[in-house]
Amino acid sequence: MEVLPTCMDVEHSRVYIDQLYSNDSQKCFQAVSELKFAVIGSVREKGSIIEQGVVVRLLQILRAPELDILLKTEVATVLNSLAKGLPEHAAALVQAGLLPVLWEQLESCPSGGSGSAYTQMLLCCLRSIYRQGCAPPPPAWDQKLLSSLIQHGYHPPSNQECVANILAHACKTNEQQQQLVDAGGADLVACLLCSPVSRVQLPALHCLTAMCFNNERVSSIIATKSYGGKAVPDLLVGLMARDRPRDMQLAAATALTFLHRAGALSADDPRIIYKTLQCLVRMCRRDREVWERVEAANTLAYLTEVSTDLQRTAAMTDHLIHTMNDYLKDTTPPNASVPQGISVSPVSCRQYDNPSTWPELMVGAALKVYASLGANDEDIRQRVIKTDVLMNTIVTSLSAASPPVQLAAVRCLHSLSRSVHTLRTTLQDHVVWRPLMTVLKTSNNEELVTVSSSTLCNLLLEFSPSKEQILDQGAVEFLCGLTRRPHPGLRLNAVWALMNMAFQAEHRVKVSILHHLGTDQIFRLLSDTDVHILMKTLGLLRNLLSTKGHIDQIMQCHGKEIMQAIILILEGEHSAEVKEQALCILANIADGDIAKSAIMSNEDVLKKLMNYMVIPNVKLQIAATFCISNLIWNVEEGAAERQNKLREMGVYKLLQNLMTTTDTGLFDKVKTALQQFH
Amino acid sequence: MRTNVDSDTDQSGTNEGVKAMETSEWLEETNKMHIHRADMNKLIMNYLVMEGFKEAAEKFSIEANIKPPMDLDQLDERIRIRTAIQNGQFQEAMRMVTALHPEILDDNSQLYFHLQQQVLIELIREGRVEEAVVYAQDHLAERGQRDPSILNELERTLALLAFDQPDTSPFGDLLHPSHRQKQVASELNAAILRAQNQEETTPLLAELLKLLLWAQDELNKKKVQYPYMTDLIKGQIEERK
């Protein structure tokens, strides 16, 4: 029969806390020991101790150089336990200034020797804090600290585990990645991957992943490292084998994925296309746990985002498209509980704390996979579209879900909208543009708005039946507004969308565009630093100025400004491509009955046209000649006067000279033009 | 490209109702199998070391002329802790574990709960009702709040208090000392081995038996007829019908 502990007795606890402040090191040690037994395993006690302000005293003890190392070790043990409590406990410790003290103490410890138990506890403490994700990331590491930390990471296994975890959770910026590699981090990780202890291998994998992410230089260095005669990528393949724990397989697959995406391993590397991809697909199966399926699907989506080969392979691996469908229908099982003892990656570890969010996580992951799979290949897109509840899920997610899932839905829709067939059929049956417009109008998330506007662009292509309905929704005004946004991606998509909208559009649509955009804004767009935006704006003008009747009407209202804009381009420092567009617009204007006069009355423009006819660039010559051709077109009223004027200026002679050209396209244009003259 | 053979819709043909072989044939084949003495010895040593039978391991090491996989003094702490548990001294066991491996109880919340549950059960068994309630409130309530599966267990345990004769109550199984204590002892033992960076935390013999039982189960599901081991301890084989 045991006597119960009385440390829950308030009187008693006050006594030992008071003793913490004693100068008698024996009494102090006793008190710290009692404290240790009280806080270990009890979240409530941890909170209570922190509230009582004991942490300050504990830090004081650590910092006092004269105090016994056994006492300090015991204090570090207590702090480690406190750090393992709730996130707020760890945050409170950081607030109290724990981190600098720990680093300082670690520095003063010799590697190995008598300080080793203390060193171990310090590292444990650091690791526990970093794992909680509340340590503010410095923009860059302290070089000296980093080196000594890495040194500690070579021996023994418990230190290795701590160092790997610290680095895995702390490495967040590009600069840190570089520093880590330069300080020997890659060598350390390669060594740790070969440890016989899986508790060391797993955080080493997370560390590797954190280093490689989106970093070309670091990834290429890591891919060439080896340990024990095996290259790191091969070591990773070994850790992905089916007899390994699931979290390890996933971490290894993620590492390989990041190496591929950062360019260190190509898409046709067998380790990627025949190993990594399969491992991830396997982990998406119905009989796996939720965290596994979500992580695997997200990683798979990232893996297959760009390469068509990978997309095609994935689409035919193990009924993947069908498996993803299951994700869309999943509901949380009633006895769902948070994964215990599983080490999910530092980035997503908090995601699974609340089982009620799991269905949404599944939907988001599946939509991302579909978005990647359907990005380039029409066959895959058609198979994806046939998926049972996909369209309904997209439509609901666009309006009702949290921003990450909304984004996934839009990305999926964007991939699907690249298919003409889909635009004309499925995307009509499910009115997707309405929630899409709502997202565009109401969201503050730049990424979301950019992808949405891209999708809208596709929906507005001429052959899209939903075009009319979108227009009725005030799309024109909205898109014109978007052209004023600071983000260049948005401006581009907006102008592109307007360009699509104007293509073979009715007069009223063109009028609406010009009205809402305004010639001022057109000028601004034509002066945009991004040349793509410039090109699309010219494209927009060209589309507006098509069809004779429209040309005349538009030039009547805005002729002066439009001519100014074109001259601006022709006189400016632009590539030949840009100038060609401007000349084509002139050619369109020259097609209008009344609009012709805008050119004919402008000697400057006529001279420019003549210059372009003789400039050594065939495309520009063709465009200029075409313009002239339109101006002198026989059939039209006033042709004789125009021909005389141009003949006087020397155009006829120029054309005759051009007959010697070797370019057939130009030759045809010149011949046609000459035939018009009489 | 071949489809992945793991797919559950890829059946290469069913074996339902197939007869594997005659029992006599089976036994003959089994007898032909030769297992090295050295391997057997290693299995036994592994079991002894893992379960903490130090004296037996030392003796066996001499008799079978086999080197123990580690310094046997390392077993001492695990032995002391297991002994404490077997004697019902759970508080003492918890303090010992914390002194040696301070992270274990923080990192293994379920284990800590089971240990505390044992304390609670002891109090209830001894009729120290008031103390039991206080203990539950002070230590276990917060754990139950955070983890619904623990709450369930906790409620079952506290329900014992409602009965005059708890051992005949529907939750009486909780009071059976041997099963529970052995479970907790094994759980704790495994946690300590993990903290010592051992990859294996259960004896290989146990794993082998599990494999045997699993294999038999799979064959039964597919209705294959084969000589079926009914008694693992005696190695008794019967024709499966």
Question: Which descriptors would you attach to this protein?
Answer:
heterodimer, A: 678 residues, mainly alpha, two-stranded antiparallel ribbon, 71% helix, B: 241 residues, 2 strands, 61% helix, 4% strand, globular, Ubq-SigPath_Reg (chain B), LisH (chain B), CTLH_C (chain B)
Report the principal-axis shape of chain B: globular
Low-confidence stretches of chain A: none
- Total count of strands of chain A: 2
Radius of gyration of chain A: 34 Å
Whole-number mean pLDDT of chain A: 88
Termini Cα gap of chain A: 123 Å
Protein name (chain B): CTLH domain-containing protein
Organism (chain B): Scylla paramamosain
Protein name (chain A): Armadillo repeat-containing protein 8
Keywords (chain A): Cytoplasm, Nucleus, Repeat
How would you summarize this macromolecular structure in one to three sentences?
The complex is a heterodimer of chains A (678) and B (241). Chain A is an all-alpha fold.
Verbal overview:
The complex is a heterodimer of chains A (678) and B (241). Chain A is mainly α. Chain A is 71% helix and 1% strand. A two-stranded antiparallel sheet of chain A has the order 1-2. Chain B has 241 residues and is mainly alpha-helical. Chain B is built from eleven helices and two strands. Chain B has a two-stranded antiparallel ribbon. At the A-B interface, helix 5, helix 13 and helix 17 of A face helix 5, helix 6, helix 7 and helix 8 of B.
